[in-house]
Amino acid sequence: MSSAPTDRPAPDGAGAGTGASPIRQMSLWPPPRSSRHSGKRRRSALFLGAAAVLLLGGVGGAAWALRGDSEPPVATETSVPDSHAGTWTGTMIQRNADGDHILDWDAQVKLESGAERGVAVWTTLNCRGSLTLTTRDGDRLVFDYVETYDPDSRCIDESELVLRPGQINGTLEATWNAVSHDGTAMTSRGTLR
Predict the structure, then answer these.
(1) Which of 15, 22, 162, 192 is the most exposed, having the fewest neighbouring CB atoms within 10 Å of its CB?
(2) Which residue stretches belong to region Disordered (predicted)?
(3) Phi and psi based region of residue 114 (left: phi greater than 0; alpha: psi -120 to 50; beta: remaining)
(4) Cα 21 from Cα 117, distance rounded (Å)
(5) Which CATH number is 150's domain given?
(6) pLDDT at 73 over 70
(7) pLDDT value for 180
(8) Per-residue pLDDT tens for 78-131?
(9) What is the pLDDT of residue 183?
(10) Is residue 175 part of a domain?
(11) Residue 40 domain-assigned?
(12) Domain limits at 133?
């Protein structure tokens, strides 16, 4: 009987050309990584990080230079100027569309410089509401009035208040425009001090 050749290595390196496996030893651990290129990777990451910082710093610096923080902020077109700031009181004379006298009522308006909102109190009518500046055309300011308190249901929920400097120094001319609950256009005018 003849025996078939096997692929088992021969003891002590015998039978080197007889079909023995070229793998002599096998390790369970991966081979060590090459450190040949790791320095190059670190330098690339540092370069990219430095470039990003310089780019962002340049953009931020340009924006800061253009903004010019050396001057105080200027009131915007939707904020109350110094000339209209304060607490103003006076009597409003209400007339209907035909010019007939309807009612006189006392008003108080509070505005802060640089603000976009204020408060209005119609003291005779026991009503108050918020004012929101909608238009500023030079010294002429237009506010939307929205009622926030009216226990006797005597006032109109929404209306318009126009303020402009008065003929006498330190006064404001006020015009209040509204449409009543029954659809009648109403205008009240007065001088606030």
Answers:
(1) 22
(2) 1-41
(3) left
(4) 90
(5) 2.40.160
(6) no
(7) 84
(8) 799 999 999 999 999 998 888 899 999 999 999 999 999 999 999 999 999 999
(9) 87
(10) yes
(11) no
(12) 82-192
Tens digit of each residue's pLDDT (9 = 90 or more) over 52-62: 544 444 544 44
C-alpha distances in Å from residue 66, one per residue of 43, 60, 132: 35, 10, 31
3-class state of residue 171 by DSSP: coil
User: 110, 104 in Cβ contact below 8 A?
Assistant: no
pTM of the model: 0.60
How many domains does the structure of the chain reveal?
1
- Structural tokens at position 130: 């918020």
- Identify the residue whose tokens are 């603000």: 115
Tokens of 158: 């929404």
Distance CA 144, CA 161 (A): 6
User: Pick from 47, 38, 113: which is nearest to 83 by CA?
Assistant: 113
CB 21 within 8 A of CB 10: no
Kindly provide the b/e burial profile for residues 90-121, where b requires at least 16 CB atoms within 10 angstroms of the residue's own CB: bebebeeeeeeeeeebebebebeeeeeebbbb
Pick from 141, 104, 99, 107: nearest CA to 127: 107
In a domain, 31, yes or no: no
Q: Which two tokens stand for residue 133?
A: 């500046």
